[in-house]
Protein backbone atom coordinates (compact mmCIF):
# COMPACT_ATOMS: atom_id res chain seq x y z
CA UNK A 1 0.00 0.00 0.00
CA UNK A 2 2.81 2.39 0.87
CA UNK A 3 4.42 1.51 -2.45
CA UNK A 4 1.20 2.38 -4.30
CA UNK A 5 1.09 5.74 -2.52
CA UNK A 6 4.77 6.50 -3.09
CA UNK A 7 4.58 5.65 -6.79
CA UNK A 8 2.53 8.72 -7.67
CA UNK A 9 4.94 10.98 -5.76
CA UNK A 10 8.03 9.40 -7.31
CA UNK A 11 6.58 9.58 -10.83
CA UNK A 12 5.67 13.23 -10.47
CA UNK A 13 1.97 12.50 -10.96
CA UNK A 14 1.38 14.12 -7.57
CA UNK A 15 3.38 17.05 -6.27
CA UNK A 16 2.23 16.06 -2.79
CA UNK A 17 -0.43 13.91 -1.20
CA UNK A 18 -1.65 12.42 2.07
CA UNK A 19 -3.77 9.41 2.94
CA UNK A 20 -5.24 8.26 6.24
CA UNK A 21 -7.40 5.15 6.60
CA UNK A 22 -9.09 3.94 9.77
CA UNK A 23 -10.75 0.60 10.45
CA UNK A 24 -13.05 0.08 13.44
CA UNK A 25 -11.55 3.07 15.22
CA UNK A 26 -7.90 2.23 14.60
CA UNK A 27 -5.62 4.07 12.19
CA UNK A 28 -4.18 1.47 9.83
CA UNK A 29 -2.73 3.78 7.17
CA UNK A 30 -1.19 7.20 7.70
CA UNK A 31 0.88 8.30 4.72
CA UNK A 32 2.10 11.64 3.43
CA UNK A 33 4.77 12.68 0.99
CA UNK A 34 5.97 15.06 -1.66
CA UNK A 35 5.98 18.81 -1.57
CA UNK A 36 3.72 21.59 -0.32
CA UNK A 37 4.29 23.84 -3.32
CA UNK A 38 5.91 23.97 -6.72
CA UNK A 39 9.17 25.35 -5.35
CA UNK A 40 9.80 21.85 -3.94
CA UNK A 41 11.50 23.43 -0.93
CA UNK A 42 8.86 22.52 1.67
CA UNK A 43 7.95 18.89 2.32
CA UNK A 44 4.36 17.83 3.01
CA UNK A 45 4.08 17.17 6.75
CA UNK A 46 1.63 14.78 8.40
CA UNK A 47 -0.83 17.42 9.63
CA UNK A 48 -0.66 19.82 6.69
CA UNK A 49 -3.93 20.91 5.14
CA UNK A 50 -5.04 21.79 1.63
CA UNK A 51 -8.07 23.16 -0.16
CA UNK A 52 -10.25 20.09 -0.72
CA UNK A 53 -12.87 21.47 -3.10
CA UNK A 54 -15.98 19.24 -3.21
CA UNK A 55 -14.86 17.09 -0.31
CA UNK A 56 -16.44 20.07 1.47
CA UNK A 57 -19.86 18.77 0.44
CA UNK A 58 -19.35 15.81 2.74
CA UNK A 59 -18.55 18.20 5.58
CA UNK A 60 -21.80 20.02 4.85
CA UNK A 61 -23.60 16.67 4.83
CA UNK A 62 -22.14 16.01 8.28
CA UNK A 63 -23.37 19.38 9.53
CA UNK A 64 -26.86 18.67 8.19
CA UNK A 65 -26.85 15.23 9.82
CA UNK A 66 -25.99 16.80 13.18
CA UNK A 67 -28.65 19.48 12.67
CA UNK A 68 -31.30 16.83 11.93
CA UNK A 69 -30.16 14.82 14.95
CA UNK A 70 -30.57 17.93 17.14
CA UNK A 71 -34.11 18.44 15.87
CA UNK A 72 -33.46 21.66 13.95
CA UNK A 73 -35.26 20.22 10.93
CA UNK A 74 -35.98 16.85 9.30
CA UNK A 75 -34.96 15.46 5.94
CA UNK A 76 -38.65 15.08 5.00
CA UNK A 77 -39.56 18.68 5.91
CA UNK A 78 -40.19 21.12 3.08
CA UNK A 79 -37.45 23.70 2.62
CA UNK A 80 -40.12 26.38 2.20
CA UNK A 81 -41.48 25.64 5.69
CA UNK A 82 -38.10 26.72 7.03
CA UNK A 83 -37.26 29.30 4.37
CA UNK A 84 -40.54 30.62 2.87
CA UNK A 85 -38.91 32.64 0.09
CA UNK A 86 -37.50 29.40 -1.34
CA UNK A 87 -40.95 28.46 -2.70
CA UNK A 88 -40.63 30.85 -5.67
CA UNK A 89 -40.87 29.43 -9.20
CA UNK A 90 -42.42 26.11 -8.21
CA UNK A 91 -39.92 25.05 -5.56
CA UNK A 92 -42.43 24.93 -2.70
CA UNK A 93 -42.61 21.13 -2.50
CA UNK A 94 -38.83 20.53 -2.40
CA UNK A 95 -37.88 18.65 0.76
CA UNK A 96 -34.72 19.19 2.76
CA UNK A 97 -33.57 15.72 1.71
CA UNK A 98 -34.12 16.50 -1.98
CA UNK A 99 -32.27 19.82 -1.69
CA UNK A 100 -29.33 18.18 0.09
CA UNK A 101 -29.36 15.40 -2.52
CA UNK A 102 -28.85 17.97 -5.30
CA UNK A 103 -32.27 17.37 -6.84
CA UNK A 104 -33.70 20.90 -6.42
CA UNK A 105 -32.50 22.15 -9.81
CA UNK A 106 -30.33 24.91 -8.36
CA UNK A 107 -26.95 23.87 -9.73
CA UNK A 108 -26.53 27.13 -11.65
CA UNK A 109 -27.77 30.52 -10.50
CA UNK A 110 -28.09 33.66 -12.59
CA UNK A 111 -26.35 35.89 -10.06
CA UNK A 112 -22.77 36.63 -11.08
CA UNK A 113 -20.45 35.43 -8.33
CA UNK A 114 -17.03 36.88 -7.62
CA UNK A 115 -14.40 36.39 -4.93
CA UNK A 116 -15.55 39.76 -3.62
CA UNK A 117 -19.25 38.92 -3.15
CA UNK A 118 -19.04 35.17 -2.53
CA UNK A 119 -18.98 35.70 1.24
CA UNK A 120 -22.30 37.59 1.29
CA UNK A 121 -24.43 34.58 2.17
CA UNK A 122 -27.57 36.60 2.87
CA UNK A 123 -27.57 38.10 -0.63
CA UNK A 124 -26.64 34.84 -2.35
CA UNK A 125 -29.28 32.86 -0.47
CA UNK A 126 -31.88 35.46 -1.47
CA UNK A 127 -30.83 34.94 -5.09
CA UNK A 128 -31.05 31.14 -4.69
CA UNK A 129 -34.58 31.46 -3.28
CA UNK A 130 -35.63 33.56 -6.28
CA UNK A 131 -33.91 31.33 -8.84
CA UNK A 132 -35.99 29.49 -11.40
CA UNK A 133 -34.86 25.84 -11.17
CA UNK A 134 -32.66 24.39 -13.90
CA UNK A 135 -34.98 21.35 -14.11
CA UNK A 136 -38.21 20.25 -12.45
CA UNK A 137 -37.20 19.54 -8.83
CA UNK A 138 -37.06 15.85 -8.10
CA UNK A 139 -36.85 14.78 -11.76
CA UNK A 140 -33.05 14.80 -11.89
CA UNK A 141 -29.98 15.53 -9.84
CA UNK A 142 -26.96 17.59 -10.80
CA UNK A 143 -23.76 18.78 -9.21
CA UNK A 144 -24.63 21.83 -7.10
CA UNK A 145 -20.96 22.82 -7.24
CA UNK A 146 -21.34 25.84 -4.95
CA UNK A 147 -25.03 26.24 -4.12
CA UNK A 148 -25.32 23.12 -1.94
CA UNK A 149 -23.26 24.82 0.75
CA UNK A 150 -25.36 27.97 0.81
CA UNK A 151 -28.64 26.04 0.88
CA UNK A 152 -27.49 23.99 3.90
CA UNK A 153 -26.11 27.06 5.61
CA UNK A 154 -29.40 28.94 5.27
CA UNK A 155 -31.39 25.99 6.64
CA UNK A 156 -29.11 25.78 9.69
CA UNK A 157 -29.11 29.55 10.18
CA UNK A 158 -32.90 29.79 10.19
CA UNK A 159 -33.43 27.01 12.72
CA UNK A 160 -30.34 27.19 14.95
CA UNK A 161 -31.28 28.97 18.22
CA UNK A 162 -27.95 30.83 18.05
CA UNK A 163 -28.50 31.78 14.39
CA UNK A 164 -25.19 30.26 13.33
CA UNK A 165 -24.33 29.73 9.70
CA UNK A 166 -22.52 26.68 8.40
CA UNK A 167 -18.88 27.70 9.07
CA UNK A 168 -19.45 28.42 12.78
CA UNK A 169 -21.84 25.50 13.24
CA UNK A 170 -19.37 23.09 11.66
CA UNK A 171 -16.44 24.38 13.73
CA UNK A 172 -18.30 24.22 17.03
CA UNK A 173 -20.42 21.09 16.60
CA UNK A 174 -18.27 18.81 14.42
CA UNK A 175 -14.59 19.64 13.93
CA UNK A 176 -14.16 21.05 17.44
CA UNK A 177 -15.48 18.05 19.39
CA UNK A 178 -13.37 15.65 17.30
CA UNK A 179 -10.28 17.89 17.40
CA UNK A 180 -9.85 17.64 13.63
CA UNK A 181 -7.85 19.98 11.41
CA UNK A 182 -10.80 20.52 9.10
CA UNK A 183 -12.28 23.95 8.43
CA UNK A 184 -15.14 25.48 6.50
CA UNK A 185 -13.66 28.95 6.68
CA UNK A 186 -10.01 29.07 7.70
CA UNK A 187 -9.37 30.90 10.99
CA UNK A 188 -7.13 33.95 10.88
CA UNK A 189 -4.78 32.42 13.47
CA UNK A 190 -4.15 29.18 11.56
CA UNK A 191 -0.49 28.79 10.59
CA UNK A 192 -0.38 29.42 6.83
CA UNK A 193 2.93 27.53 6.57
CA UNK A 194 0.88 24.35 7.09
CA UNK A 195 -1.07 24.87 3.85
CA UNK A 196 -0.15 22.78 0.81
CA UNK A 197 -0.66 24.97 -2.24
CA UNK A 198 -2.62 23.72 -5.23
CA UNK A 199 -1.03 22.91 -8.57
CA UNK A 200 -4.02 23.32 -10.86
CA UNK A 201 -4.75 22.79 -14.52
CA UNK A 202 -5.86 25.02 -17.36
CA UNK A 203 -8.93 24.40 -19.46
CA UNK A 204 -6.69 23.32 -22.34
CA UNK A 205 -5.41 20.45 -20.18
CA UNK A 206 -8.87 18.91 -20.21
CA UNK A 207 -8.34 18.33 -23.94
CA UNK A 208 -4.58 17.72 -24.14
CA UNK A 209 -4.42 15.48 -21.05
CA UNK A 210 -7.89 13.95 -21.19
CA UNK A 211 -8.43 10.96 -18.88
CA UNK A 212 -11.75 9.80 -17.39
CA UNK A 213 -13.83 12.98 -17.64
CA UNK A 214 -16.76 12.49 -20.06
CA UNK A 215 -16.08 14.25 -23.36
CA UNK A 216 -19.58 15.74 -23.22
CA UNK A 217 -18.70 17.45 -19.94
CA UNK A 218 -15.31 18.60 -21.23
CA UNK A 219 -16.99 20.30 -24.19
CA UNK A 220 -19.94 21.75 -22.29
CA UNK A 221 -17.69 23.28 -19.62
CA UNK A 222 -16.27 25.50 -22.37
CA UNK A 223 -19.55 26.39 -24.12
CA UNK A 224 -21.30 29.48 -22.68
CA UNK A 225 -24.99 28.90 -22.07
CA UNK A 226 -24.74 25.21 -21.20
CA UNK A 227 -25.70 24.15 -17.70
CA UNK A 228 -22.18 22.83 -17.08
CA UNK A 229 -20.63 26.15 -18.07
CA UNK A 230 -23.08 28.17 -15.97
CA UNK A 231 -22.54 25.92 -12.94
CA UNK A 232 -18.79 25.31 -13.01
CA UNK A 233 -17.59 28.70 -14.29
CA UNK A 234 -19.37 30.88 -11.78
CA UNK A 235 -17.41 32.49 -10.06
CA UNK A 236 -14.33 31.70 -12.16
CA UNK A 237 -14.87 31.83 -15.91
CA UNK A 238 -12.49 29.39 -17.61
CA UNK A 239 -9.74 29.97 -15.05
CA UNK A 240 -9.70 26.42 -13.69
CA UNK A 241 -10.18 25.34 -10.07
CA UNK A 242 -6.59 26.15 -9.06
CA UNK A 243 -7.53 29.84 -9.08
CA UNK A 244 -9.63 29.29 -5.95
CA UNK A 245 -6.52 28.51 -3.89
CA UNK A 246 -6.13 31.94 -2.33
CA UNK A 247 -6.51 33.63 1.03
CA UNK A 248 -9.89 35.20 0.26
CA UNK A 249 -11.46 31.86 -0.65
CA UNK A 250 -9.84 29.98 2.25
CA UNK A 251 -11.43 32.34 4.74
CA UNK A 252 -14.92 32.77 3.29
CA UNK A 253 -16.25 29.37 4.38
CA UNK A 254 -17.90 28.31 1.11
CA UNK A 255 -19.79 25.19 2.13
CA UNK A 256 -19.56 23.19 -1.09
CA UNK A 257 -16.03 23.84 -2.36
CA UNK A 258 -14.09 25.89 0.20
CA UNK A 259 -13.11 23.39 2.89
CA UNK A 260 -9.53 23.19 4.13
CA UNK A 261 -8.49 19.87 5.63
CA UNK A 262 -5.78 17.38 6.45
CA UNK A 263 -6.20 13.72 5.52
CA UNK A 264 -5.95 12.86 9.21
CA UNK A 265 -8.71 15.31 10.05
CA UNK A 266 -11.04 14.04 7.33
CA UNK A 267 -10.49 10.42 8.38
CA UNK A 268 -11.18 11.32 12.02
CA UNK A 269 -14.50 12.96 11.11
CA UNK A 270 -15.58 10.10 8.87
CA UNK A 271 -14.34 7.74 11.56
CA UNK A 272 -16.94 9.20 13.93
CA UNK A 273 -19.64 8.26 11.41
CA UNK A 274 -18.07 4.87 10.66
CA UNK A 275 -18.40 4.10 14.38
CA UNK A 276 -22.09 4.99 14.44
CA UNK A 277 -22.15 8.75 14.98
CA UNK A 278 -22.29 8.68 18.79
CA UNK A 279 -19.31 11.03 19.22
CA UNK A 280 -21.25 13.76 17.42
CA UNK A 281 -24.69 12.91 18.76
CA UNK A 282 -25.91 11.64 15.40
CA UNK A 283 -29.00 9.55 16.02
CA UNK A 284 -29.46 5.95 14.83
CA UNK A 285 -32.34 7.16 12.64
CA UNK A 286 -30.11 9.66 10.84
CA UNK A 287 -27.35 7.08 10.46
CA UNK A 288 -29.90 4.71 8.93
CA UNK A 289 -30.89 7.41 6.42
CA UNK A 290 -27.27 8.07 5.46
CA UNK A 291 -26.52 4.37 5.07
CA UNK A 292 -29.67 3.59 3.08
CA UNK A 293 -29.46 6.69 0.89
CA UNK A 294 -32.01 9.15 -0.43
CA UNK A 295 -34.41 7.86 -3.10
CA UNK A 296 -33.15 8.24 -6.66
CA UNK A 297 -34.47 11.12 -8.78
CA UNK A 298 -37.65 10.24 -10.67
CA UNK A 299 -35.88 10.15 -14.04
CA UNK A 300 -32.71 8.36 -13.04
CA UNK A 301 -29.19 9.10 -11.89
CA UNK A 302 -27.79 11.00 -14.86
CA UNK A 303 -26.16 14.14 -13.48
CA UNK A 304 -27.51 17.07 -15.48
CA UNK A 305 -24.24 18.97 -15.00
CA UNK A 306 -21.55 16.27 -15.15
CA UNK A 307 -23.38 14.32 -17.94
CA UNK A 308 -22.72 10.96 -16.25
CA UNK A 309 -24.55 8.97 -13.60
CA UNK A 310 -23.94 10.00 -9.98
CA UNK A 311 -25.78 9.14 -6.77
CA UNK A 312 -26.14 12.16 -4.48
CA UNK A 313 -27.64 11.65 -1.04
CA UNK A 314 -28.13 14.02 1.93
CA UNK A 315 -24.99 16.04 1.14
CA UNK A 316 -22.85 13.04 0.22
CA UNK A 317 -22.26 10.69 -2.70
CA UNK A 318 -22.98 6.99 -2.40
CA UNK A 319 -21.81 3.86 -4.23
CA UNK A 320 -23.95 2.65 -7.11
CA UNK A 321 -23.53 0.23 -9.99
CA UNK A 322 -21.13 2.41 -11.97
CA UNK A 323 -18.96 3.51 -9.06
CA UNK A 324 -18.52 1.04 -6.21
CA UNK A 325 -15.92 3.00 -4.25
CA UNK A 326 -16.42 0.91 -1.08
CA UNK A 327 -17.16 -2.72 -0.25
CA UNK A 328 -20.73 -2.08 0.91
CA UNK A 329 -23.58 0.17 -0.14
CA UNK A 330 -23.79 1.65 3.37
CA UNK A 331 -20.84 3.91 2.47
CA UNK A 332 -21.15 7.66 1.93
CA UNK A 333 -18.64 10.41 1.27
CA UNK A 334 -17.53 12.81 -1.44
CA UNK A 335 -15.05 13.11 -4.28
CA UNK A 336 -13.53 16.33 -5.55
CA UNK A 337 -12.25 17.88 -8.72
CA UNK A 338 -8.64 16.85 -9.11
CA UNK A 339 -8.99 13.35 -7.65
CA UNK A 340 -9.38 13.59 -3.86
CA UNK A 341 -11.80 11.24 -2.09
CA UNK A 342 -13.06 10.85 1.48
CA UNK A 343 -15.75 8.53 2.80
CA UNK A 344 -16.86 6.15 5.50
CA UNK A 345 -18.45 2.73 5.37
CA UNK A 346 -20.38 2.09 8.61
CA UNK A 347 -21.05 -1.57 7.79
CA UNK A 348 -17.37 -2.21 7.14
CA UNK A 349 -16.11 0.18 9.84
CA UNK A 350 -13.87 2.04 7.37
CA UNK A 351 -12.99 5.74 7.22
CA UNK A 352 -10.87 6.82 4.27
CA UNK A 353 -9.26 10.07 3.11
CA UNK A 354 -6.87 10.69 0.21
CA UNK A 355 -6.01 14.26 -0.76
CA UNK A 356 -3.52 15.87 -3.12
CA UNK A 357 -2.38 19.32 -4.15
CA UNK A 358 -1.91 18.28 -7.78
CA UNK A 359 -5.25 18.36 -9.55
CA UNK A 360 -5.85 15.58 -12.05
CA UNK A 361 -8.18 16.00 -15.00
CA UNK A 362 -10.38 12.96 -14.45
CA UNK A 363 -13.86 12.55 -12.97
CA UNK A 364 -13.58 10.00 -10.19
CA UNK A 365 -11.39 6.96 -9.60
CA UNK A 366 -8.26 9.04 -10.10
CA UNK A 367 -5.58 6.37 -10.75
CA UNK A 368 -3.27 7.87 -8.11
CA UNK A 369 -5.97 7.47 -5.46
CA UNK A 370 -7.58 4.29 -6.73
CA UNK A 371 -4.37 2.25 -6.52
CA UNK A 372 -4.06 3.09 -2.82
CA UNK A 373 -7.72 2.28 -2.11
CA UNK A 374 -7.53 -1.02 -3.96
CA UNK A 375 -4.33 -1.96 -2.12
CA UNK A 376 -6.03 -1.20 1.19
CA UNK A 377 -9.06 -3.31 0.39
CA UNK A 378 -6.84 -6.16 -0.77
CA UNK A 379 -5.09 -6.07 2.62
CA UNK A 380 -8.46 -5.90 4.39
CA UNK A 381 -9.65 -8.96 2.49
CA UNK A 382 -6.55 -10.84 3.62
CA UNK A 383 -7.17 -9.84 7.25
CA UNK A 384 -10.79 -10.98 7.17
Structural notes for this entry:
It is a single chain. By secondary structure, the protein is an alpha+beta fold. The chain has one domain (2-383): DD-peptidase/beta-lactamase superfamily (Beta-lactamase, 3-Layer(aba) Sandwich). The chain has helices at 2-11, 55-69, 79-82, 96-100, 121-130, 147-159, 166-178, 205-208, 215-220, 227-232, 247-252, 263-274, 284-292, 367-383; strands at residues 16-23, 26-34, 49-51, 182-184, 195-196, 259-261, 312-313, 316-317, 332-335, 341-345, 350-356. The strands form 3 sheets. The protein has a 5-stranded antiparallel beta sheet with strand order 2-1-11-10-9, sandwiched between helices. A 4-stranded mixed beta sheet has the order 4-6-3-5. A two-stranded antiparallel sheet has the order 7-8. Helix 2 packs parallel to helix 6, helix 2 (55-69) packs across helix 7 and helix 5 packs across helix 6. It is globular, with a radius of gyration of 19 Å.
Summarize the structure.
With 384 residues, the chain is α+β, with helices and mostly antiparallel strands.
Comma- or semicolon-separated keywords:
384 residues, alpha+beta, five-stranded antiparallel beta sheet, four-stranded mixed beta sheet, 12% strand, globular
